[in-house]
Amino acid sequence: MNIEGERIRYTVEHTEILRPPKQTISTFGVTNLYYYLLTEPIYSEITKDVTETVIREGRVIAERPQIVTPYYLSRLEGFSSEARKYLSALIKVHGANAPGLFYTYKNEPNELTIVSDNLLAVVDKLNAEIDKRGDPLVSIIKGEDELWDVSLMKFIYEMTRSSLSDNIRQMGTRGLLDVDDSGIPAGVRVRIDELFARVSQGEYEPRELKAELERWGLFEEYQDRFFAIFKKER
């Protein structure tokens, strides 16, 4: 393992979710997760008598989980050759139309402050503040200063892992993971209907809808409905 890989491994192993959110990622809506990511400043390794804590605040926005298949993922851009080999292996093992969930996140950093207090004392104060507010979607993370974003990624991974089974169960109960004769999960058809509605209301770009239909291999099936949008605008 090279030096960079070793630093990442060290960061992951020394990152702790001290206060996880009391709710998991929503199955059918957007989830806003507020975090306090605490680290000891990197210069504390040199100046041993410094007792300070870096507090990074921000929000991780988890979009509603999307139903995907290995076939759909193989049509997305931006994957490396190694990732595409993995997708090919998934198709061989599970089939091109095996439904799964795809999670997308956006990080919105907020404030960065350095306080003259040790990390444990800061944790106690933050816990008291959060308990007083009663916010179920706040987390406290103990990370590493130099690679704090890797610490945040571990938090996102843990949230995904803890939410996955419940998200799948809820979608399965509604029949959204059922696959039709065309190899398309029912939930995908629901999402496509939603996207058509959003395009009609001017909330979604037609070109993005067209790209989504093409990734599913469904543009020909929906093309009359797609072009009808533009007839209504005249």
What is the element layout, followed by pairings?
Elements: H1 3-13, E1 16-19, E2 31-39, E3 53-62, E4 66-68, H2 70-74, H3 81-94, E5 100-102, E6 105-115, H4 119-133, E7 138-142, H5 148-173, H6 186-200, H7 206-215, H8 219-233
Parallel strand pairs: 2-7
Antiparallel strand pairs: 1-7, 2-3, 3-6, 4-5
Q: What brief labels describe this structure?
A:
alpha+beta; single chain; 7 strands; elongated; 234 residues
What does this structure look like?
The protein has a domain at 1-64 and 103-173. The protein is 47% helix and 19% strand. It contains eight helices and seven strands; from the N terminus they run H-E-E-E-E-H-H-E-E-H-E-H-H-H-H. A five-stranded mixed β-sheet has the order 1-7-2-3-6, sandwiched between helices. The protein has a two-stranded antiparallel sheet with strand order 4-5.
What proportion of the residues is helical, as a percent range? 40-55%
Radius of gyration: 22 Å
| Largest sheet: number of strands, sense, barrel closure | 5 strands, mixed
Can you write the helix and strand succession as a string?
A: HEEEEHHEEHEHHHH
Tell how many strands the DSSP assignment holds: 7
Straight-line N-to-C gap: 61 Å
Q: Assess the beta-strand content as a share of residues.
A: 15-25%
Strand order of the largest sheet: 1-7-2-3-6
Shape: elongated
- Rounded mean pLDDT is 91
Structural class: alpha+beta
The low-pLDDT segments are none
Count the helices. How many? 8
